[in-house]
Amino acid sequence: MSAARGTPTHCPYCALQCAMTISLPATPAGEPLIAPRDFPVNRGGLCQKGWTSAELLRAPDRLTTPLLREPAGGDGGILRSSPREIAAGPRPATWDEALGRVVATITRLRREHGPDAVAVFGSGALTNEKAYLLGKFARVALRTSQVDYNGRFCMSSAAAAGNRAFGIDRGLPFPVTDLGRAGLVVLAGANPAETMPPLMGHLTGPGTRLIVIDPRRTPTAAAALGGGGLHLQPAPGTDLALALGLLHVARTSGYLDTPARAAYRRQRTAGWEPAWQRAAAWWPERAERVTGVAVADMRAAVRLLHEAPGAYILTGRGVEQHSKGTDTASAWINLALAFGLPGTAGRGYGCLTGQGNGQGGREHGQKADQLPGYRSITDPAARAHIARAWGIPEADLPGPGRSAAELLEAIGTEGGPKALLVFGANLAVSAPRARHVTGKLRQLELLVVADSVPSETARLADVVLPVTQWAEESGTMTSLEGRILRRRRALRPPDGVWTDLEVLSALATRLGRDRAEFPADPDDVLAELREASRGGLADYSGADTARLDAEVPLYWPVPAGSDGTPRLFRRRFAHPDGRARFAPVDHRDAAELPDGEFPLFATTGRVLQHYQSGAQTRRVPELQRAQPEAFVEVHPDTARRAGLADGGRATVTSRRGTVAARVRCVATMRSDTVFLPFHFPGEGSANALTNPALDPVSRMPEFKVCAVRLEPA
Amino acid sequence: MTRRHCVIIGNGMVGARFAQEARRHDPAARALAITVVGAEHRPAYNRVLLPNLLSGTMRDEDLILGDRGWYASHHVRLRTGTPAIRVDVAAHAVWTGDGDVIGYDHLVLATGARARVPALPGIAAAFPEVAAGVTALRTIGDARRLANLALTARRKHGRIAVLGGGVLGIEAARALTARGTAVTVLHRGGHPMDRQLDAPAGRVLAAAIRATGIDLRLAVEAVRWEPGRGLWIRPTGNPGAEPGAEPGAELVRADGLLVSAGTIPETGLAAAAGLRLAPSAAIAIDDALTTSDPDVYAIGDCAGHPGAAGGLVQPGWEQAAVLASRLTGAEPRSRYRGSSRVTRLKAAGIDLTCVGDAFPDVADPDFEVLRFEDAGRYAKLVLQADRVAGAIMLGFPDAAAGIVQLYDRDAPVPADRLALLLGRALPEEASGTRAPAALPDHAIVCRCNMVTKAQLRDAWYDGATSRPALCAATRAATGCGGCGGDVDAFADWLSSTDPVKPAKEAILR
What we know:
By secondary structure, chain A is an alpha/beta fold.
């Protein structure tokens, strides 16, 4: 394998953004070759998804021409409730025709119902340039406030808690490599052994112990036990009580009274007393009863935190995707602050970002309440800055819109969106209560989906726009550690395929904007993004292409002329007084608890071989062979009581829907809990079960716990 | 629904919980105006954690359940330092100690309980303020008094006597010893915590208590308290002589006496108002938490419900939640059907959990009883129809947590009864058996890249006869790298069992 013609780039999947080289095949029929590169986060490693990622580029059902579905009833103004897939199938169309249809319908809907009748849905998979231009497209070309993205389903709780505590939200406020020197890493609701395997190389060194908090004995939890650490296995939806119990034990064991921790609390934090008052009412025996985690294990965990020479607490979706996800993340941050971890050398708190650009995607304005540079859309100074950067009157800049789940729920209601443009998301599989969401999408007058493959959502669309994928385009991504990375075009896209930026540029032009306002070249967009972000929390103004191409490690904020910020908070936190904030949080039950009719908890998550809705990985034969179908992990006793055995077919039913899945008996499961991966569509779609109850702060749906029953199929 | 005025008498853990629950359902006070009348001066605090004040692990302010700011910002009128002295149910009015009369639509009695004090010379007559050196442990004031007595005892190399070896007595004794105070616990019964434990469990617990340095005297009862000297005791059950004049009495030298001999529901107001009392001497209530007067409710330790065990906070909190959802109109038909009985001893070094009824009729074939006992541990698990009916778990910290959850949810127990007692599933394969020869063909060696033993072996025979070659051929160890040692072991195993032949080497491209 020759690397001579290889293009250095990064993996198309998760936020670890493993470095790799992609080499063109010697013959037109050959496969592009993937080779891992030595890079700090992946240290020359790749997981099975990364190794096989070139196969995505050759997906047999790759979209190469726009598709159009003829409006039923002729005039396009009639709401249709019949399933779109069954209606006349889509026909190939020219780009001119497809874009013409989009613009004509949008224009009519705006005229009839106002600009908010058109909504935009983005993604944490989009490059920074796309995320930026998409937000600008919504606010400037469409003048709609209705723009949000699938990161609401991913990072919003951790982001809200991080902002609340630190005044800024960067998933890891330190480089990943810092973790390798830790004596202890606490992973609350994170399973990196499956979701970002090369990260485990940083967590399993000889001097590092792990404490894993997860309702399941995941491979990560097994690694913790194998390395002399702990696995705490709480009932789903009780992590907040556990964190409060741990803080209580820490305080009453005297561990927080060391001079260093007392001084840290006094000098670098605010709000300890009210936060402690909540935790004071969670004595460990009470927390034990709610969580099922033994008091002895809580004491052991806290002792490890006390004694470790350097400790990090990291949270993942397991604690964040709840109707109390923000408060739960805050409770873990409180514990970190109590031990003086954030902003201290060799210590820290962080959250493990999920999607490839889940970090950058939440910084540049595709979120309903946000403008580029992680600015707030309600902050007058931020609005003035961005209006100036975009050359529009500030009054023309829309205000905050609906969050993702609320945006989808508003479809078909008075004042709700009539048209939706989706970029990089597969809502029909990934949204909570997915079948209900599918029904909502069918009520739209216009659904436009830009994707490279016919995803489950694309199949519902009136207009499908075939777009490039990772190795066929350039752009920047911001990884879980806040480092800005360059993804380079390695090969020519198939004929007929446009980039997302070209699509946005063309649509904006047809909607009457100047082409110069919506450049299609990613470097031009980055130049504009750098200016727009200047002075914001996430300042990218110093991230120029030359330095990125040279792989200078640039961590935001990177103001022009600076070398960036690998480690935040070393001197001060980002609140005006420089102090971090304890949050006074208390436990509350999950929105839905098991009862006689639905006696089991269900929780959802990922497997190693698949990514998110599976639209990409289910098209890679090697991955699909390894994990071909939906399954449900269940304790053998629970299976037996339901009349099921390992390998049998089961249905799992919640108040919202039923899923068919293959039974996997796992002796380490809690007998009150079943687990389903959420990568599969149709009758195996785990999100048919999930509860759309929202977190009041982050608007995160409750993906991680609902009540179900288990029956033979 | 017109706004109603709800008066709560009692600002303890249960009264305060009711106010908080009511405001959760009714944050803007549209359904209920609330007034709380509390005799103590400080805001509500957590009695469960009073022993932590003795051990020095918490301070008074750590026990506060809701400061004054909470009441003000949640539209709750708080009148502390003012006891309610009379209730007139016909007039729907409460008289307070400072001369006020407060009208109500709903009255919630959450007056709690007081310590049961034996009518013995030197103890009851002067209890509590006057008798030098005697106290209960119901209030922060009590805890301060006891902490001062303990300090005196430590300085004089003396000790504290604890009368009553129930949950509170043991927790308090353990907290005192944690801070270096010598303690003698005196208990009437033949084993401690005899309300919850059978005799074998009691024997193990007694040993565990003594192992923490507590002097535990069983089957003894108090005769009289002699200030400055100590507590006179005698063996339990000796018939006869007048208290205090017992010739066989023995003196336990002590500088202070903690009385932890149970509680009595605080029912004075209710009884004077003509409300019916239950046989337990608590205020009689039904499942709607209503007393014999339809506008008066009682919750917590002052209330007598057949499904609620006294002395635990959980039933009172559950009653508070039910009543709040009824009175705010959130769930008007909500009912309290009793609480699951879980007693969890909070004593450092002693892990004891008791649930339900662990004293079944052993002859009854409906019950399945599992037992384990050794010198330091005792487990008794009573199962009925695959559900936990009762359990005593002493020294089984992992199992106890799971068993309580099974009991609370009335969930079926694992078929593997040994795993139930151990608190964790037995591993399918003991760890450390990743020796290559022992693994089945389908065993995954590298999880990141799903490489099985069979794939490694095939790669070996196809010429990949070193670790780098195996990794390149199969991608094993190219993810997190965690299985690198396993791949090495695999290469070693194959090269020793099936040495590389030159012919094989030649196949390598």
